[in-house]
Amino acid sequence: MIKGFVDFIKQGNVVDLAVAVVLGTAFGAVINALVENVLMPLIGQLLAQDPDFDNLFAVTLPGFDGPPMRFGVLLTAVVNFLLIAAAIYFVVILPMNKIIAARKALLGTAEEEEAEEENITLLKEIRDQLKVQTEVVNPAAFAAAVEAERKLEEEKSRVEAEKEVEEKTVLSKAKNFLWSKD
């Protein structure tokens, strides 16, 4: 029992997950500090007021004594979300994409992707040529392949027709049941 637990803990994905959680928490603190201490004060200075919109749209319905509906809280959450998304994009994603592109250019991996696409195109051309050659060289094999494809299409059409009839039958039964004709 203990050996199984130790094996579980030693698995690479458990350790990777633990590292990801710790780094995610630390990175979340960095992003929150950026949003709360740089971006939100900047917005506050641009608006000449506190960027907290919590009490901006507080609505109380007439005849109700409960707490007001505070739409400003939603607005604050949306603004915070957009700021966090922008901070992540401009501080993390954009620089990382540039670093990855520079690395690919340096290592030549972009050429490998283009070569792979060329290989796929070449394989498609070979497939098409083989199809033409089979038709010319071995007409019997080509005719058999065409016949098999036709039978497959007929079977497919037959199954769809049976399914359509069954659906109509079920629908008719349901209508008769609803209108008490049954």
UniProtKB/TrEMBL annotation:
Subcellular location: Cell membrane; Membrane
Pfam families per UniProt: MscL
TM regions (residue ranges): 12-35, 71-94
Domain of life where this protein originates: Bacteria
InterPro entries in UniProt: MS_channel, MSC/AndL, MscL_channel
UniProt main location, coarse: membrane
GO molecular function, one term: mechanosensitive monoatomic ion channel activity
Membrane topology label: Multi-pass membrane protein
Role played: Channel that opens in response to stretch forces in the membrane lipid bilayer. May participate in the regulation of osmotic pressure changes within the cell.
Family: Belongs to the MscL family.
Quaternary structure and interacting proteins, as annotated: Homopentamer.
Protein name: Large-conductance mechanosensitive channel
Protein's organism: Nesterenkonia alkaliphila
